[in-house]
């Protein structure tokens, strides 16, 4: 695959400085609908890299910083809304088409706000540039129908839908494949740790960390950069 590096911070959602311009594009194309004039690749053809909001060293840190941690199965993945990943919304390749991934939740392991949410929730992930060319961001392969595993989620910025999330980081997905864990970004130190665990061990550590959060003995990590936050009171 071709590799390229994003300028600025990796972002999912609307960038504050370019919110008006990006919103206009969303209005023109339609939220959650693919542009009929663009052909979207069925498979990614390049890799993109950029700075992330959080860099976790442990499962406990990632759990505490997540708005929701679930075990679920991917049931659908389609082109979704427009978003931006660059500091400068006018930068080449700044506007992207996100993938809308539907997750059928079978177990909730961390829900600090005790939110009531539907069984089917939405995960947004980076998918295509403005010309419809597919790419993978920070080594996280596209979610595929049938994928089952653990998802560490934060509310998506740029949407008022309280049931739309993004991965807490490139480490935020751990699939269960043939009884073993497959981390979403195999290049990180945390991935090495997760790979050595059995699914039951990961499950127990998430639940224990959630209990520590509830007891006030474990708090969320400090972000490495300022990024857009989800609307206040919208399910964070």
Major β-sheet, in short?
Answer: 5 strands, mixed, barrel
Helix- and strand-based class?
alpha/beta
Order of helices and strands: EHEHEEEEEEEEHH
Strand order of the largest sheet: 3-4-5-8-7
Q: Summarize model confidence as the mean pLDDT.
A: 82
Proportion in helices:
10-25%
Q: How many distinct helices? A: 4
Topology, number of strands: 10
Name the poorly predicted regions.
6-32, 87-94, 232-236
Report the radius of gyration as a whole number of Å: 17 Å
Beta percentage is 25-35%
Distance between the termini: 36 Å
Shape: globular
Report on the structure:
By secondary structure, the protein is α/β, with parallel strands linked by helices. It contains 4 helices and 10 strands, in the order E-H-E-H-E-E-E-E-E-E-E-E-H-H. It has helices at 19-29, 59-65, 189-195, 199-215; strands at 2-9, 46-51, 68-84, 95-110, 120-128, 135-137, 148-155, 164-167, 173-177, 180-183. The strands form 2 sheets. It has a 5-stranded mixed barrel. A 3-stranded parallel beta sheet has the order 1-2-6, with no helix packed on it. Helix 2 crosses helix 4. The longest helix has 17 residues, at 199-215. The chain is globular. Mean pLDDT is 82; it is low at 6-32, 87-94 and 232-236.
């Amino acid at each position: 695959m071709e590799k390229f590096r994003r300028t600025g911070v990796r972002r999912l959602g609307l960038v504050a400085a370019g919110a008006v311009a990006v919103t206009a594009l969303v209005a023109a194309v339609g939220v959650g609908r693919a542009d009929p004039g663009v052909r979207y690749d069925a498979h990614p053809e390049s890799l993109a890299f950029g700075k992330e909001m959080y860099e976790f060293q442990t499962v406990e840190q990632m759990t505490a910083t997540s708005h929701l941690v679930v075990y679920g199965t991917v049931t659908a993945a389609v082109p979704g809304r427009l978003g931006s990943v660059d500091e400068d919304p006018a930068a080449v390749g700044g506007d992207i088409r996100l993938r809308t991934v539907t997750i059928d939740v079978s177990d909730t392991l961390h829900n600090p706000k005790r939110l009531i949410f539907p069984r089917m929730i939405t995960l947004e992930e980076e998918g295509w540039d403005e010309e419809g060319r597919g790419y993978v961001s920070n080594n996280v392969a596209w979610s595929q129908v049938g994928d089952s595993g653990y998802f560490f989620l934060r509310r998506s910025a740029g949407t008022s839908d309280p049931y739309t999330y993004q991965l807490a980081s490139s480490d935020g997905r751990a699939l269960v494949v043939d009884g073993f864990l497959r981390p979403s970004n195999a290049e990180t130190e945390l991935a090495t740790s997760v790979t050595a665990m059995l699914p039951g061990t990961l499950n127990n550590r998430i639940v224990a960390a959630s209990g520590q959060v509830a007891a006030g003995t474990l708090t969320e990590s400090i972000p490495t950069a300022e990024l857009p936050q989800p609307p206040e009171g919208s399910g964070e």
